[in-house]
Amino acid sequence: MTLLAIKDLVVRYGAIQAVRGVSLSVGKGEIIALLGANGAGKSSVLNACMGLAPKAGGSIAFDGVPIERETTEAIVRRGMTLTPEGRRVFAALSVLENLEIGAAASAELRRRGRENREAMFELFPRLAERRQQLAGTLSGGEQQMLAIARSLMSQPTLLLLDEPSLGLAPNIVDQIFDLIASLKTRGITVLLVEQNVELSLDIADRAYVLAGGDVVMAGSAQELRASGGLERAYLGAA
Amino acid sequence: MDFLVQQFVNALALGGTYALLGLGLAVVFSVLGLINFAHGELMTLTGYGIFYALFLGLPFPVALLIGVTLATVSAMLMERIAFRPVRNSSPTTMLLTSFAVSTILHILFQNLISARPKAIPIPDALAGAVTIGTLQIGAIQLISIVVTALSLLGLTLFLKRSMLGIAMRAAAEDFNVTRLMGVNANMVISTAFAISGLLAGVAGILWLFQRGSVDPLMGFLPVLKAFIAVVLGGLGSLSGAVVGGFLLGFIEIALRAYLPDDALAYRDAISLTLVIAVLFFYPQGLVPRRESVR
Amino acid sequence: MSRFLKIGVSLAALAISTATGALADDVLKIGFAGGFTGYLAPYDQPTLQGIELAVDEINNAGGIDGKLKIEVITRDMRSEIAQSAVMAQELIDQGINVMLAPCDVDPAVAAGQIAQGAGIPTIAPCASTPTLPGIVGDYMFANYTADNLQGTALADFAIQQGYKNALILISKDTPYTEKLPGYFAKVFEAKGGKLADAVEFKMGQQDFSAEVTKIKQLNPAPDVIMTAAYEPDFPAFIKQLRSAGIATPVLGSDGIDSPTTLALGEIAEGVVFANAGFPSAGSPLAKFNDAFKAHFGQESSTVYTATGYDVIKIVEAAVKATGGKTDGASLREAIDNLENVPVATGTITYKGMNRVPLRVVALNRIVGGQKTHVADVTPNGADVPPAE
């Protein structure tokens, strides 16, 4: 069953067309990787899904409902959210407050805030130790954990992850990918934007490769590995 | 020594009013990136609210409440009518919009109410003074200090304890990511304006206690001082606005108290030079706004 | 050829009719370049009301001398000096006979200079700087009580009250707030008083705590404080002065003749201030106030309505004096020689006064939130310090 369906999406920033007619779909329970070089338009696709990038054409449906005209906060309430690139935790807020605001979307979530926070602290014991600390004082890995935990506080059915491994030490990257893989068992669907192709294909069911704002390849992880076309996509020769 | 302590109290009272004003500007700037130059007109509206409430024979405390409510509601309306349509435009567009709102309100006040000041009789009880040792603190000064302290305390509690308060602090750092938390952007901005209106109302009352009248241009000078306080403290930083407000109050009082007579005429120039000197060493202001690592 | 001739003739006719202006029309055009918006609005708006009332009265009676009607053309100079000159030019292009200037000295100079060049007499209804006519030239007249006259009246009163040691509170922001207390101090010292100190403030500062603390330190304490501060500074100053426990008597200028001062309650009790007239029962000013209320349906909120009315009465008297001539030179000459013209605030004399009118200065004392009449004084000309 398709959870997210993007058709002919066009994103334009002034004169620059960042996404030129991308179509892709994410099925319920899948982990989908969106791969491609810098500037291929991956982040723009995610931001467009969340209503944070100017859409110039195409359609986006979440759970069968068209959402391209909805506000960011309304989309979050529908059950889709994004952990943005570069983590972007609220540096001047404590770890606890960062999690608290993650549950701001609805009264129901706010009611269950304490319970959900404790669940997050179980999932990320390092955050539990630092609950009163300001998020800006955390290490990069801890900030990434916090950013994901903060997104999970809204109990999404679909989580968009933008470059979660960016700038992190290799052992931390492994931890993060383990975590992403485990989200599937918690019933959370994932659309993952990454530059780390190997690790992404390890955990992904399917993947799309973007270059110059277009989908240039798509298929299961095995198919993409076998085709050997990935390097070309990254070199922008496709 | 008495002179010094007395001047210190003076600076505390004046700085507190500047802090409230600066905070009002900073709250809106922190979430919207807009210096709302129509902030002063919210003070003026408070004045007219009180004037008409007294005119209708309502008791003084009720009139004050009406004044503050009017400023709060007007701030929210201002956002809804004038600023929301240009929210995603360039900062210059928003700035010019705020100038336009300010000018339109001036002219409406002048032509619909009166260009002449309207008197607001302040109860005689507020004219007294409290004597502590050899120190004499005017009732209005004392009220200024207490009200400023209470307002700062109330705002701090709101920002620390309530979900909306946390959301506002988050929005001040990173507006888009705050929206990704499902926080309603309109709600946050509307609240920011409501708080700025409330602060303008409270500061407006303190201002009115001193001057005893409201006229169309009443808000012009205070908003200028608030702007200086905000720049001094660091644009968009709430604690910075408070620090900037108090510092400006202390600089002004110190110059007025200790400059020799011949130099008094230059005191605004000197005080602005000091402000520039501070900015030279702290270009982002004394308490720069925090932004998340991008 | 004949067609060209016709055009030429009509152009010439047009030129003549523009040059002679209202001579051809049966109407006297008065142009008012006032600040109806901006910081001058509190003065120029009421001035205009007084002007309207006077013009209505005259026109309803058939015009000046029963035949020459008055038309008032207004231009909002938005309280900006540059706009004042622009609007003055526009008015002159409309063929006005007399110009009225804004209520502050700097824009009044700007407007006056344009009219001076065009040979059109200008009257400043409420600008009170005594140097104003001298700066602009022989076509510029003041109307309001001049600052040196007012300062002298207040100093005479202070001496009479037996005050020995005066403190003045001044602001260098305007000539009014700086020079008026200066004239007061000059006369006060010349008559044996002593100036304790001149404390400075910035207009609009509102917070006077530092200044009041300074005044409190003075030894010996002054026995009178004189200032030309007005709203919002004056109420703020006197509040903070009184709440610091300083009970020294305060003398003020006409700037504080406002409902705000009366609404100050206990604090303002006993304050004495000068203004352009007191509406004693049966006085012309009381009659004016009644007429104002009948015409506008509300009380006159300030004496600027009356002084606005006065300006039109001056123009009327001048036109009568010329025998109906309305050209600039005749009117200028006539105004310069007016004597004892009855106006709303009393009488006005220009003859021998270098275009700064001789008027009565009224002294008022605030008692129980009401103005009470202390005296009408006409200072001795020899005591009045020269305009500076």
Identify the notable features of this structure and list them briefly.
heterotrimer, A: 238 residues, alpha/beta, Rossmann fold, 6-stranded mixed sheet, 4-stranded antiparallel sheet, 11 helices, 10 strands, C: 388 residues, 2 domains, 7-stranded mixed sheet, 5-stranded parallel sheet, 13 helices, 18% strand, disordered N terminus
* End-to-end C-alpha gap of chain B: 51 Å
| CATH architecture descriptor text of the largest domain in chain C | 3-Layer(aba) Sandwich
At the fourth CATH level, what is the homologous superfamily of the largest domain in chain C? Response regulator
CATH fold-level name of the largest domain in chain C: Rossmann fold
How would a crystallographer describe the biggest sheet of chain B?
A: 2 strands, antiparallel
Low-confidence stretches of chain B: none
Oligomerization status of the protein chains: heterotrimer
CATH top level of the largest domain in chain C? Alpha Beta
**Proportion of beta-strand residues of chain C:** 15-25%
Mean pLDDT of chain B: 91
Structural category of chain B is mainly alpha
Number of helices of chain C: 13
Largest sheet of chain C: 7 strands, mixed
Order of helices and strands of chain C: HEHEHEHEHEHEHEHEHEHEHHHEEEE
Class per helix and strand makeup of chain C: alpha/beta
How much strand content do the residues of chain B show?
A: under 5%
Give a description of the structure.
The complex is a heterotrimer of chains A (238), B (294) and C (388). Chain A has a single domain (2-237), classed as 3-Layer(aba) Sandwich (Rossmann fold), CATH 3.40.50. Chain A is of the alpha/beta class and 238 residues long. The mean pLDDT of chain A is 91. Chain A is built from 11 helices and 10 strands. Chain A is globular, with a radius of gyration of 17 Å. The relative contact order of chain A is 0.18. The longest helix of chain A has 16 residues, at 170-185. In chain A, the strands form 2 sheets. In chain A, strands 6-7-8-3-9-10 form a 6-stranded mixed β-sheet, with helices on both faces. Chain A has a 4-stranded antiparallel β-sheet with strand order 2-1-4-5, covered by helices on one side. Chain B has helices spanning 2-32, 39-55, 60-83, 91-113, 139-161, 163-173, 175-180, 185-211, 220-233, 238-258, 267-281; strands at residues 118-119, 129-132, 135-138, 213-214. In chain B, the strands form 2 sheets. A two-stranded antiparallel ribbon of chain B has the order 1-4. Chain B has a domain at 16-219. Chain B is globular and about 55 Å long. Chain B has 11 helices and 4 strands, in the order ααααβββααααβααα. The mean pLDDT of chain B is 91. Chain C has 388 residues and is of the alpha/beta class. Chain C has 2 domains: 24-145 and 282-357, Response regulator (Rossmann fold), CATH 3.40.50; 147-275 and 362-377, Rossmann fold (3-Layer(aba) Sandwich), CATH 3.40.50. The termini of chain C are far apart. Residues 1-5 and 7-24 of chain C have low confidence and may be disordered. The chains are: A alpha/beta (238), B mainly alpha (294), C alpha/beta (388). The interface between B and C is large, with 49 and 41 residues.
